Amino acid sequence: MVPNCEVGTPAEPDSGSGVLHNGVALGCTAAVGYSLANLALRRLSDTAWSGGSGWEMWVTAIKTLPMGIAAWILVLRRRVLRQDAFPPLRMLPALAGTALLMQFGGNLSFQMALGYLGLGVTVPLVFACIICTGAILGRTLLGDPITLKIIQAMGVMLVAIVLLSIGTTFGQSDIAVPSQVSSRSSVRILTGIGAGVLSGCSYGAVGVLIRRFLQSELAVESILIVFSTLGGVLLATGAIELSGWQVIQQGTVRDWPILMTAGSANAIGFFAVAHALRVMDVNRLNVINASQNAMCAVGAVVLFDEQLGLPAVIGIVLTIVGLLGLGRRIETSVK
Questions:
Q1: pLDDT for the residue 168
Q2: Of 123, 216, 235, 260, whose CB count within 10 A is highest?
């Protein structure tokens, strides 16, 4: 069905006083934070062989640690100031379900996909699913407007994602891939693709659900303490059960700086996204945040010897074009 257009619908309120009221600045901050986290996670995926699935779960658990510490400090500060700090009991089941979806469906699946596919393919694949899932659920559950400018930007970004994926994997004949997947079988590739799709769909759904929670005036830190505490404890417990404490301890001591880098950068990205969702709809934020595809593509080549062919270069250019298109005011809304 061809969508009906309605002219004159105002844009979402993405500007205001202060950084926490500037959705574009928060979206760009999130993209940079997540890009740094993804580069650190890609490095950690090279050591997954030492602990198997348990190590991947442990990396995902530790990634939540800095976010959890920051969230608890902010919650206790709100408590001291006699403000609403902890989420109400009636919302805990929904928050717990969303936390499990994010940690196991999103974060753990993303870490698994990195081990199978590498950074250059995983990030674009995940973001294609994030954009599509966020657009569908945002419109269905939140009534977020789908503007013509957003549709154009989404189209440009999706094309850029495809080109980045092709250009970082098949751009040259000698393809550098993670050491543990040098001989790719069709089963491993399909497993990696499945994990990436699950991760992207989970992230897209979680973004919509977070925006819905925030519409109830729930504090950002109140949401994040549930996400980080519940998800982190369950992931850490599962990791120790699967790989044993000795293996986990050895890997942690060896890779502690990278683990903390991934966790700290992830915390910056998550806080930025959560605050951006207060002032910006899911679709526009996802398109802005998709700029990390270009950053990760460059990082994959420079740091991990993954290939950057001509399609990837075109994809980076299209990413910039898509972001510039979002800088203009949106005046047309699609029903």
A1: 54
A2: 123
Helix axes 186-215, 92-100, angle to 10 degrees: 160
Q: Supply the pLDDT for residue 117.
A: 75
CA–CA dist 88, 72 (Å, integer) = 16
Q: What is the DSSP string of 57-121?
A: HHHHHHHTHHHHHHHHHHHHHHHHTTS--SPPGGGHHHHHHHHHIIIIIIIIHHHHHHHHH-HHH
Q: pLDDT digits over 179-220, tens only? A: 444 444 667 777 888 888 899 899 989 988 888 888 777 778
Q: Say which residues have a Cβ less than 8 Å from residue 227's Cβ, sequence separation at least 6.
A: 64, 67, 95, 98, 99, 102, 103
Instruction: List, edge to edge, every strand of the sheet that includes 146-147.
Output: 5-7, 332-334, 146-147
**Extents of the domains making up the chain:** 17-334
Using alpha carbons, list the distances in angstroms from residue 333 to 142, 145, 208, 211. 15, 6, 19, 20
The first and second tokens of residue 172, run together, are: 């040259």
HSE, CB side, 13 Å, CA atoms: give it for residue 252: 18
| The pair of three-digit structure tokens given for residue 61, joined into one six-digit string | 């658990």
Position 100 scores a pLDDT of 92
- The reply to whether the predicted model has a pTM over 0.85 is no
Q: What length does the chain have?
A: 335
Least-confidence region, from 36-40, 97-101, 112-116, 174-178: 174-178
Share of the chain above pLDDT 70, in %: 74
Of residues 115, 156, 144, 185, the one with CA closest to residue 321:
156
Q: Which residue has the tokens 């609403």?
A: 84
